[in-house]
Amino acid sequence: MPELAEVAFASKSWANGMGHKVLQVETLNASRVFRDIDPGLLKRGLRGSDLLESKTHGKKMLFRFSGNRWLGLHLGMTGWLHREDAEHPTGKHDALILRQDEQALVFRDPRQFGRVLYHRDKEPPPWWIDLPPEVHSREFTLQLVRSVLHRRKRALVKAVLLMQEFFPGIGNWMVDEILWRARIHPAERAGDLSPAKQRALWKETKFVAKGALSTVGKRGGDPPRKWLFHVRWKNGGKCPLSGTALLRETVAGRTTCWCPSRQRLKKS
DNA sequence: TACAATGTTTTAAG
DNA sequence: CCTTAAAACATTGT
User: To the nearest whole number, what is the mean pLDDT of chain A?
Assistant: First the structure.
């Protein structure tokens, strides 16, 4: 589920826990989400500390606790945050539970592609510095997009949009939404895009990111009505703009949906 | 049964 | 060393 806006929304599930002490920590030690850290260290580190602040960047989440403790989370493919009752019984896929007075803050991830990081230091963790500009920020410039498309000129544009070091937070459905709006075929080579298409890619990336954040990011649920999102998940959909039957095929290893009349592949 | 699922990392090859 | 493509990871639902 989680791309840019879903991550922003999910992080709010723990908002009620801000300013409250963590009384107990439970970790599902066998879960692959702990592949980078010792869950025992995390457990001892967070017990007794206060949850102070949360941030997101792309698909990454960072939680700051008292005592110079930091928790990093990535939701992977099936991860999500939940706020449960204080008496919440530990579930099968509850990888991490922070138990507070009034509630239990849960990180649940059945498929375990998510990730838990822990850091203890006055300064933010090393994995939270030197992050690329958010795609909805002023620093995400046309010039930056052009240089990325040039550096990855032989790769398919679909694959390039999925690279988190350049387009943090953009995931599979957002790429399809962006390319559909920009009228770019997903299997086009990044270096083959005309200057006009490069600009369209930049502009629609910002549009989709901001649009998703102001809808999905605020209230959860779905993006606006006329978006490709609503028709991209199964075969038989029609383009909301042209009415053409949409195509669904694997491009760059991911299921991809596009409109063959709006998004044409330049013949080589 | 077999395949696909809103993601990253590792491995291999060029 | 850089770039690109494919496999791997683990579970659930259709």
Answer: 97
What's the CA–C1' distance between A166 and B5, in Å? 24
Q: Residue A172, CB, less than 7 Å from strand B?
A: yes
Domains of chain A: 4-128 (3.20.190.10), 142-258 (1.10.8.50)
Footprint of strand C on the protein (CB under 7 A): A 32, 77-78, 92-93, 110-113, 151-156, 159, 190, 252-253
Chain C bases closer than 7 angstroms to a protein Cβ: 3-12
- Taking C1' of B5 and every protein CA, the nearest residue is A77
Q: At what angle do helices A195-219 and A4-11 cross, to 10 degrees?
A: 20
- Name the DSSP letter for residue A39: H
At A266, is the pLDDT very low, low, confident or very high (cuts 50, 70, 90)? confident
Which residue in this structure is represented by tokens 């991911």? A254
Strand B, nucleotides < 7 Å from a protein CB: these are 4-9
Closest CA to A120 of A68, A47, A65: A68
* pLDDT tens-place string over residues A3-16: 999 999 999 999 99
| d(C-alpha A140, C-alpha A95), whole Å | 34
